[in-house]
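RETRY 2/3 - previous attempt timed out on the joint model. Re-submitting the same 1992-residue input unchanged.
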Amino acid sequence: MRREHVRDLLQRVADGSLEIGNALTALAFEPTESLAFATIDHQRALRQGFPEVIYGAGKTPDQICEIATRIAERGHGLLVTRLPADAVEPLAGRLPGIEINALGRTAHLPGREPAVQGKGTVAVVTAGTSDLPVAEEAAVTLAALGNCVSRVTDVGVAGIHRVLARREDLGNAAVVIVIAGMDGALPSVVGGLVSAPVIAVPTSVGYGAAFQGLAPLLTMLNSCAAGVTVVNIDNGFGAAVAASRITHA
Amino acid sequence: MRREHVRDLLQRVADGSLEIGNALTALAFEPTESLAFATIDHQRALRQGFPEVIYGAGKTPDQICEIATRIAERGHGLLVTRLPADAVEPLAGRLPGIEINALGRTAHLPGREPAVQGKGTVAVVTAGTSDLPVAEEAAVTLAALGNCVSRVTDVGVAGIHRVLARREDLGNAAVVIVIAGMDGALPSVVGGLVSAPVIAVPTSVGYGAAFQGLAPLLTMLNSCAAGVTVVNIDNGFGAAVAASRITHA
Amino acid sequence: MRREHVRDLLQRVADGSLEIGNALTALAFEPTESLAFATIDHQRALRQGFPEVIYGAGKTPDQICEIATRIAERGHGLLVTRLPADAVEPLAGRLPGIEINALGRTAHLPGREPAVQGKGTVAVVTAGTSDLPVAEEAAVTLAALGNCVSRVTDVGVAGIHRVLARREDLGNAAVVIVIAGMDGALPSVVGGLVSAPVIAVPTSVGYGAAFQGLAPLLTMLNSCAAGVTVVNIDNGFGAAVAASRITHA
Amino acid sequence: MRREHVRDLLQRVADGSLEIGNALTALAFEPTESLAFATIDHQRALRQGFPEVIYGAGKTPDQICEIATRIAERGHGLLVTRLPADAVEPLAGRLPGIEINALGRTAHLPGREPAVQGKGTVAVVTAGTSDLPVAEEAAVTLAALGNCVSRVTDVGVAGIHRVLARREDLGNAAVVIVIAGMDGALPSVVGGLVSAPVIAVPTSVGYGAAFQGLAPLLTMLNSCAAGVTVVNIDNGFGAAVAASRITHA
Amino acid sequence: MRREHVRDLLQRVADGSLEIGNALTALAFEPTESLAFATIDHQRALRQGFPEVIYGAGKTPDQICEIATRIAERGHGLLVTRLPADAVEPLAGRLPGIEINALGRTAHLPGREPAVQGKGTVAVVTAGTSDLPVAEEAAVTLAALGNCVSRVTDVGVAGIHRVLARREDLGNAAVVIVIAGMDGALPSVVGGLVSAPVIAVPTSVGYGAAFQGLAPLLTMLNSCAAGVTVVNIDNGFGAAVAASRITHA
Amino acid sequence: MRREHVRDLLQRVADGSLEIGNALTALAFEPTESLAFATIDHQRALRQGFPEVIYGAGKTPDQICEIATRIAERGHGLLVTRLPADAVEPLAGRLPGIEINALGRTAHLPGREPAVQGKGTVAVVTAGTSDLPVAEEAAVTLAALGNCVSRVTDVGVAGIHRVLARREDLGNAAVVIVIAGMDGALPSVVGGLVSAPVIAVPTSVGYGAAFQGLAPLLTMLNSCAAGVTVVNIDNGFGAAVAASRITHA
Amino acid sequence: MRREHVRDLLQRVADGSLEIGNALTALAFEPTESLAFATIDHQRALRQGFPEVIYGAGKTPDQICEIATRIAERGHGLLVTRLPADAVEPLAGRLPGIEINALGRTAHLPGREPAVQGKGTVAVVTAGTSDLPVAEEAAVTLAALGNCVSRVTDVGVAGIHRVLARREDLGNAAVVIVIAGMDGALPSVVGGLVSAPVIAVPTSVGYGAAFQGLAPLLTMLNSCAAGVTVVNIDNGFGAAVAASRITHA
Amino acid sequence: MRREHVRDLLQRVADGSLEIGNALTALAFEPTESLAFATIDHQRALRQGFPEVIYGAGKTPDQICEIATRIAERGHGLLVTRLPADAVEPLAGRLPGIEINALGRTAHLPGREPAVQGKGTVAVVTAGTSDLPVAEEAAVTLAALGNCVSRVTDVGVAGIHRVLARREDLGNAAVVIVIAGMDGALPSVVGGLVSAPVIAVPTSVGYGAAFQGLAPLLTMLNSCAAGVTVVNIDNGFGAAVAASRITHA
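RETRY 2/3 succeeded.
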């Protein structure tokens, strides 16, 4: 539509019904016209079958259902993160094919177009069982974005043999997402074991001085393994998108 | 120049040497072409005689002198804030007419065009003598941007009669900038005395638990006088620009 | 009444029944007599039809209803902010004409005198849908204080074309209130697009490391766009009053 | 009893049944024997009719009732602070004469001996109505400890005339307790108005950047009025005891 | 002078040359006239021989000398705190009788009038030798304000017998100032040993996690001894003024 | 099993069916093979009858019951910490012999093998009654790990005679665990009274500025008694394991 | 050498001079033997011509020169980051071919083997000129690790047209490193413009409330553009290694 | 002496020259008399040849020399920590036999009595070379207190094979002190490898978000290896004393 507007404008310049000076002024005052039809990333995203994402926190079940239904009607895929518990049943009732992941608090409905597959496997590594909800959020998001996922679970550094035993799995991954609460030490060890990109996710798991994830967040930012990058506390979704940026490059 | 680029493009559409589809594509991929000649604010800034601003912190005397000279050669005014002590002499040597304010750590060279005058007077109010460097930075910036400035000095709330005695001065101001360290309580009192906009500036003055300005910053953000707004610690420059946005509306 | 007290005192000086020395002492010990009848701002506020404001947080429904009723009986307008959910029904029952805004958690009853209109429109801009409750609080407050309001919604910087598409709306505003959680980056972009005063409001929206609004608060205080000012976290009311100080100058 | 122990020991030294060397050793290894009967403060406290204090937070209604009953049976006075809501009824049922203060979350049962009266009046000053629960806790504690209390309510600095109007009341107090949330500015103003000791109490009242009382706490510690002292957030009890230490000196 | 102004005004009312209405208006618009001659605290301070105080931090030697000389010329006493090292010699040269305390970084020149003596002795207690500079600042200030001072030094709680050995000295004090860095635990012990007012001063002494005094500050605010009050980090001056408010009540 | 794998590999080297070079490569890629059968600590732990530990926070009753049952079936002992209230009944129903400690929120089922006894007694010292839940968690853990426990309760430093009266008990302990909230001062006093190892546990008990245990945590880290070590906030379990590392050395 | 150890052991198994059981035990107790020759990443790093890295902060010029010389003698490349100013001349004297970058505080000596080239170009984007030292550190590191680098400088969001004008450059990059201080808002905008991986680096540039980089760090962690990852404050080196992990995958 | 005082008192009770009641009173008012001769720990410390410790930070060279000389004259050993650089030469000149450790900033003069030897070896483990100064402080302190020390250096977890290669050394230690900056992850790994007590020391080494040691401090407090205890930032001395409490039990 917007694109039509500019096309019209150019058409009128071509047929002489609009002076160049006026066209120039019009364009100057509508810079986003040009931007609007140039958001290639979004179009590419759609072409690649990426789902639209609804951040469920702070939304009512009704709001989530309504937004989700409208997306589904267009045939697009959709992913709900931080799905509130009381929205699960209404959403599943409205969109029968939707896949609910209770642990990861996600809902995923694939679109008509399958997601373009990323290159390689993304390993999702967790230090302890309490980190699993964040891992699930990451894994569901990765799959929805067209990635193969492998799991390496409960390999915290206090029993260092556990992560060493999974070294081959880690070495085969194109990207490694490492999820840990408490001391957040696991990414430093993993970052030294593999040469692939490592994305660290702190979780809000732990005793008082973990300060809801601040402790592992700082640990990861200060990782002695060079080249480890970090996302927000409990943000499995963000880590998955970051990994998918790499596998789809 | 950039504007010329778009004009050329339109010219080629007008004379038929460029197809509309191709023009459309070109515009889509150069969204900032349109933006580049549309940054009216900047042009207006120049038309109004506003100086260009150099943030001196972390720059060498040589760098500052070089940048300043290049601006001055174009006949534009310039304002240096956070001027390092060892840059004063070189700068004054290079640009003889420049006005140095040692306390405020500023240098100001008016441009060929005088700054457009703002409406009304801006009052710069300080709680204690240690807040004066920040007040000077604000006052010099205000003057450079075309504002009348009045000073109300050393009226901290521990001697409440001091600020009450200056109530008339405060009431006459179009905007009031209130600068305070330590407890940062003055803006709350001033905000209750006047109906004009009040901009609060915390300073890094005080004993240990002031935490380099964190204490007055929090005080001001929590002001019980409704409608007080806050800028960064020691940021007299920012407060002056905010005030000037109001007086030049 | 208080004014009468001073008048009496002066009367007695005039008719010789009170010595000057004694009058002097009396005045010295009652400084607020003079202040009490000199609080022009308050009177002006009343003359201008400004409502009285009740901060509802931490008050019981009964307390809110009682205070509101007493104000309404005098014919004054009133605004309740942070209205607790369980106070909505009792309040609406007691004061039938009162306008409840569920999203903004406000209640507004206009006074007999209409509010004096401010100059120009205040734009209320939000980065995401989760910022809407704060925007509503600001919008209702602005209207109650006699301001025209325009809305620019869901224009977060991750899709920069969205805010650029609304550039004209922003450019037309006398004051721009920008509300954002998470990274709080929007005010920096808006501050560069407009020359009008920009008031930034951080919200407590986001993942763990947003620390209930601390992250966007710091972002906004450090805005690279000069002259952006900041209010407290989630304080749409404060931003509205600050804007209204500008439009009523 | 413990005192008896030492008396016995001395008796046995006196009658020769215990050697001096052995007595010396016994005393060396039981240093608190001597301390135990030397805790004059406690005895004086009892002599002065001070109540025993129960900190109710985190205790069950049963625990509170049991402790309170045991104290009451000895004829001692008792004061419960932070009384949980569900403990009010059981406690009032068990000890019919006990005075419940719902706002201050206290319960007070005077002892057989009246509290020794302190010298002068303690003024309890609040900035806003939300500070009243803390003020009540202070006032009840003060009364229980034998102090006269005067109230100065809702005199926050945003309307500076309010506190000035109560200047005489403030000037008459032996000690002034100033309670404020949000910007915590009131103690700085009061500290400049009176020469008596000023004890500041920050409250956890306010918008997000008050950080549950951290903001007014820092404000008060940085008060520009010399000689203002500070107690913990919401700690009306502590301020009252501090004041009572002064009035009972 | 200001007082003269009001007297004139009243005189003109008395002799009929000023109408009551006009006098009323004049007083209404000059509320601080009345305040100006009513700042009894200041006058009393002068009558009592209290010195004027110069906070030396951030002032040049020249500025300090100039201010000090002007005060001395009026015959007033003066106290400089946080005296910069390079200001010692110039100041001693300019005002020969001034007493320099190198450890406490103070300079004191008694006024013509001796300070009115406070009631009782103020004990200044330190946990370790590193706390002595703050203790000196407190002691010099106390003496300058007319107080008797006793010292209890190096009685940190890690050797609990040290403070217990000085229990009598502590018990005899009218006010106890307790100064401690590191764990800041001493005020809790002292607060349990004496019934007099206890003022705690945290110092910026200690290893990394003392965070420049934050650790002992929090310790003292959370003292389990009821009624301990706290001043700013390293603020020996503030503690002394607080104590003097008590001894001069 | 893993050990078998390496044995096979060596066997094949011995009988010539595997070349040394290939064996070298295989070992290089399976480093954890060697580690897997070398986790002596774990085996020793089992030999010593140590229980397996389940951290109950964030787990459902079902999950806890299932894990606990599987451990119990192997005849191992088990310890649940942070047992959620709604898991108590199901767990007690499933494993009849399990010992529930409601205050400490623990469940303990001894294994077939009794725990190897540690040398000496571990004293568990608390400052106030609110610290008891953490003390219980420590005491139950200590007993489960084979330690004798003595209790010293409610000996906070505000009544210093209380801890001095228990000096002998403290002096007899092999390790002293000191648990305190609020000012966290007790470990500094205890650390000066005994020469045994002292482990300090901050608790989340106290008024606002205790910041959920941050205040006592900092106090303890800054203890003026040399050689006091610290564990996480409310982490009675961690302190007990640390003590048990010492008694089992 | 270590590898030789295991080879010897296997040889002795092969020739029967070592029993399998004993070999098993030896391997069990020397798990790192196997690890030592299995650190493939390091070997690959060497094969790929990666330099060895010396973190210069806190090292003396002598130490740096000695370490650097020893590496250079083996023909390996080396990179010094955070090179102290007083180490520049000695290092350049000792290793004549070394390339010093004064702004980025780096020294680089390429090894005999050229670094294996990564795929694609890494864009290094800065918000302001004060971010350049960090950008230089990143750029030198990237080049040393075998990456093509493109620069996009001074495109802070306050002048949004600047970054939009460079959109094509950004779109062509395989990885984008975005460096910003103050509000740290740039990565959020860039993250919305490109689909490639975005690594954000906060810098310690800005006024007081930037808190040495804490403000932009939090901004970036909370980026509203999904999939932005973050490294430590001022850590250009870490961002470059993270980018190189991606381009060498 | 003090002991003599009590003996006298008892003597007078024994010979009838002092009544029991009066003796009782005397003891009540001199509780520390009894304590003074009961500080067994101190006496034992002296018997065991422990040195007296001087914390050098914030002391002048003169002060340090004077204190050290006085101790040395009594034949006691002494240990200076945090020895200022400018005190090294004067101290070495005054006490020729004293051993200076420049890296650890310590000076040690053994006493006439050799220190009683602790049981077993204390391992001092560091993650990186920047942690060595803290390690030296710990090692010198350990030796001065009579402990055998083994070193394990530069075994940070980013190259996990390094620490695994030293596993035997770690397993042989009676106590393990683990020193690390940046991510502080090493104690979690070591805590899982050994069953001995592990004492973690965070150092102030690292990029910006290490916040002068706060990051590794939090990491260590949240260690996922149960039973790791923590001391203050950079406090090698404290860790050594804690270890020595264990080896001397």
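The first strand of chain D starts at residue 52 and ends at 55. Closing ticket.
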